[in-house]
Amino acid sequence: xxxxxxxxxxxxxxxxxxxxxxxxxxxxxxxxxxxxxxxxxxxxxxxxxxxxxxxxxxxxxxxxxxxxxxxxxxxxxxxxxxxxxxxxxxxxxxxxxxxxxxxxxxxxxxxxxxxxxxxxxxxxxxxxxxxxxxxxxxxxxxxxxxxxxxxxxxxxxxxxxxxxxxxxxxxxxxxxxxxxxxxxxxxxxx
Length: 190
Ligand code: AMP
Known about the structure:
It is a single chain. The chain has one domain (2-115, 155-189): P-loop containing nucleotide triphosphate hydrolases (Rossmann fold, 3-Layer(aba) Sandwich). The protein has eight helices and five strands, in the order βαβαααβαβααβα. It has helices spanning 13-24, 31-38, 44-55, 61-73, 90-102, 117-128, 138-162, 176-189, and strands spanning 2-6, 28-30, 81-84, 109-114, 167-171.
């Protein structure tokens, strides 16, 4: 099962990705988590990533694309994957589509999480009390949302038009369990 999840920060796609990953035993590839795991390295890349991520801006494609393709080609992903947080802009999307075609990888499902700005801002503020992320504060949230709505959301339109029957929107303001069961139904038919 090969899935892509779209949705703004705080829309709950990470939570749902973890649930699906456990249920059907495929890896949850969160580019945010992968990048955060590199922040602890004591090197130049960690410094560069820390600066970009704590400002809410996007990490360059030249760093992201090889990380993602290496993962997708690894044995870990032989039975599928859930991409969470990638692609995030048009050039990543073009790169990914090209890569999937070249490697004969066929997507099963693309889910777009929909939630309003107030809800997601409040959720991120709540999350900041539990997790210690440098980008979970009001100023940076504004930048992250702006990046999402200008660069990432338009990609969902592309996937909607080009992956008919595989692309679904989900109301991400519902309870976690309700969203989970809606996704479960989609997975059964994918
Ligand atoms: P996330 O955990 O998905 O909210 O990502 C946290 C931060 O990691 C983002 O604000 C970006 O700085 C960076 N990031 C994650 N995924 C990507 C991506 N696909 N392209 C560029 N930057 C990314």
